[in-house]
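User: Okay, second chain of the day. Same drill as before: sequence in, structure tokens out.
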Amino acid sequence: MTSDAPKAANADIPIVLLCGGFGTRIREASESLPKPMIDIGGKPVLWHIMKLYRHHGFRKFVLCLGYKADVIKDYFLRFRIYQADFTVDLSKDERPEFHTTSGDEDWLVTCVYTGLETLTGGRLARVADYIEADTFMLTYGDGVADVDVQALLDAHRAHGRVGTVTAVHPTSRFGELQADGDRITDFAEKPMLNEGLVNGGFFVFERKFLDYVGPDSDMLESDALQKLTADGELGYYVHDGFWRGMDTYREYTELNRLWDQDQAPWKLWR
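Assistant: Same drill. Structure tokens below.
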């Protein structure tokens, strides 16, 4: 198997992105935007996440939309227009002639409106018909990391459980994970300990996980993932590198500073 073979195989694995939340803790930057569309260096945080996955060979994305879904839909419908240079002849059919490849991405993007106030478990259930694979990935649309997504997938396949969560070292307020060997034993959403590991998103699931959710399910963290843990079917992958959620205006400014100074650890693509 060549070094490019794993990336080629990854092209058929869907990535589910949770993009429907209100972003109430970062109102300074998200008053008129859905949270995944808040920019880092002039590009939506959603774009940064998708670029990371594409770097590892993944190209199929299923977006769970909710709050201001039209903004995200419009962004992808007009993606090339927003990115590339073009000329348009307004005396004719107004179809642009593109001069650059800036808007060319090898992405297959499915946008699904999953409800305004639907919780994350319900959002996943409502996109089940668009997950056309035995294995899929899932993450939140509001944070960046330099996670080795290929190593995460390899770890998931090695332990053979239904799900795998990426465990990271906490930077703020997230629920602590407890483990026994390579298995998660407690997915409690409670104040974390500084020396502990927390849920960093970047999940891998087998299709069987869809049996744990329904259209009206609660939050994944307090419902389906708890049940998966109780069944002994949630493994974990430790990521020791950079990871940052964008929940506050301070985190927003810090991520933009890193990008502007060309010090963004999550920029693995060139």
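Residues 5-260 form a domain with the Spore Coat Polysaccharide Biosynthesis Protein SpsA; Chain A fold (CATH 3.90.550.10).

User: Thanks, on to the next one.
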